[in-house]
Amino acid sequence: MLQESRVNVLSVKQISIQKPLTEEWMTNPEIHTENFVRAIDPDFRQFISAGDARRLGKLLKRALATSLSALHEGGITNPDAIITGTGFGSVESTELFLEAMIRDGEQMLKPTWFMQSTHNTASSLIAIHTQSYGYNSTYTQKGLSFECALYDAWLQFGLGRISSALVGGHDEMTPEFAGFMRKAGHLLEGEICSEAAVSALLSTREQEGTKALCTVAGVEVLDSPDAETLDHAVRSMIAGNIPDAVLTGMSGNATNDGYYHFLKKTLPEVPLLRYKHLFGVNFSSSAIAFYAAANCLGKGFIPPVLTLTGESVSCSKGILLINAVEGRHYSVILLKPLCGKL
Amino acid sequence: MAQNRSVSITGFGIVSAIGVGKQETLDSLLSNRTGIGRLKYLKTVHTEFPVGEVKLSDEEMERILGIAPGTPATRTALMGMLALHEALSDACLGRGDLLQAAFLNGTTVGGMDKSEQYYTDFIENDTRNEYIKSHDCGSCSEMTADRFGRFRYITTISTACSSAANAIALGGDMIRAGRADIVVAGGSECITKFHLNGFNSLMILDRELCRPFDVTRAGLNLGEGAAYLVLESDESVRKRGVKPIALLSGYGNACDAYHQTASSPDGEGAYLAMSRALADAGLAPADIDYVNAHGTGTPNNDVSESQAMIRLFGENMPPVSSVKSMTGHTTSASGSVEAAICILALRNGFVPVNYGWTNPMDDGIVPNMELKPSCRLRNILCNAFGFGGNDSSLILTATD
């Protein structure tokens, strides 16, 4: 059975269509109105060599930057586990290799594009950079890729195998793949196609000199749950303690937002929050939700930019994260404050 | 801790170049028949490379599965469906059972076979949008699973050539942690032009039949296939009244942390993965009766893996072989394809042969070349290593 050890979130870092590696968006967000917006990149040279900055694709550079930044802030150099979620992987390298193969024929293709195209390059590159020989894995399940990675980390903590984990959610986009997202119905009318890179450092130990943001109290990922199963999953996770708010993946698209209507019945009094209007939509959006909620709990308040009413909400009991993908897959994550009542 | 660590395996299904289903696979293994040959199904200019293709066209697989012509299906999903069908029937699982079960799938190419075929359409028109939908690996898992019903949890692991092994290990963890009673885990991967050219650009494909652990080896032969194991908790085994056919007694995952595609010369990641699997199973190296090596036939892998095995087993090296000499390298599916072959070896008491090997390496292991029939195997160590140093080992154990 799972052990009872508290899993702390020591740090979470993001590169997205908001200012990178900062929580400035909480008070002063970038407002985007275009259909497709690429991430705002930091100066990568503070994290990696000039050679790597040239050689590596955007997803990999961002994964390294958010990871190294999260590790630095959390005071851990070699996490016991490195687990990444990515829905599409390095699409830029994939596209370059694929296009060259179609355009120029099957000769003289660049190995670099192929090497960077596999989904596990982020996890392995982070391991190479940090010399981490521990547990290393990569998940890819559309818009739930991050939760699948988090679920694995949760299991490894529960089985007592690890005491720290770097869990990431990384997706990059190209104009072509942004078009594919819409054609495949992964992106709906009115949703901004974006990019995201999130790295979260989790630990069962409190690091000396650093204060954790919050704790992870539960992770559940469900395929095709019926209404009763979904209701039960939420209720059993909160165990009678009503959270301060529910952070949803509502995007303003009526079909998508309908997937969250069950919350009116399951948690009628709890304010709903949103983040996709600020961060857009991609396969790693849910990693952004985790990042946003963890940082709200770390600061003790939910900024008005996330609420539907435009008023800020205090947070002392916890934030529930619900992600619904295509009305089929659901994830339920509960984050609690360090010394809260929950 | 050692108590109740083993997870029961109550069924499996397998498809590869050496057979569709476990009977054909067993027959090929016992008669030393390789499935590697000239390209037949993949459309590519690189006909110089021998490959281990599954001996069925997409249309033939659709016919066997009863899929209506014109229904969008990728080759990876079709092979996956064949293997999943066999695994579910073998374990006597019906639609109702799946509702509380997990499906853990390993793949890296996903729907790339169709994407590389229709990429221009993807960009220019809307005629192939259904294949954009099936491009990503997660959709490929769903396409495979949905044919048989809905699972409680579906996820896709993509750690390159160790994907299916890691899916099996995750299944073990979910059962040990009490998060699932029944898990169907493995992987599927078809050969695509994309990764045939990718491996070619890395210059690790052999133009001859591959010869793992042979000093003249020049690379791997790509293969394809799918296999799934049904893992089950003791309670579920009792409740359903099924009989375990083997046990998953341990597994280890490590990162070589050395290079994006190459393995470290000393095989640190491979050594760690194997050692962790032994520790996890509570076994000593001397308890291993056979090692199903990753043994791709690339100069780099076979040195690295040999060094790791020599470090782990020393003078007492158990029989070792790489079945990639017969199946080709089934990449993301290799972990489960070879775990399934290990179960066949356990059940039928034989050590598979390292087909095509002749000349020993200076610093390598000497693989098993004699089909040893009627031997009693108790524990098999099965390796699956991937690009990026994603190294994993599984230990499969005979039931008493």
Structure, explained:
The complex is a heterodimer of chains A (342) and B (400). Chain A is α/β, with parallel strands linked by helices and 342 residues long. Helices cover 35% and strands 20% of the residues of chain A. Chain A contains 12 helices and 12 strands. A 10-stranded mixed sheet of chain A has the order 3-2-4-5-1-6-12-11-7-8, with helices on both faces. In chain A, strands 9-10 form a two-stranded antiparallel sheet. In chain A, a hairpin with a 3-residue loop joins strand 11 and strand 12 (329-336). Chain A starts with 6 loop residues before the first strand and ends in a 6-residue tail after the last strand. Chain B is α/β, with parallel strands linked by helices and 400 residues long. In chain B, strands 1, 2, 3, 4, 5, 6, 7, 8, 9, 10 and 11 form an 11-stranded mixed sheet that branches. In chain B, strand 1 (7-16) and strand 2 (19-20) form a beta hairpin. Chain B is globular and about 60 Å long. The model of chain B has no long low-confidence stretch (mean pLDDT 96). Classes of the chains: A alpha/beta (342), B alpha/beta (400). At the A-B interface, helix 3, helix 4, helix 5, strand 3 and helix 6 of A face helix 5, helix 6, helix 7, strand 4 and helix 8 of B.
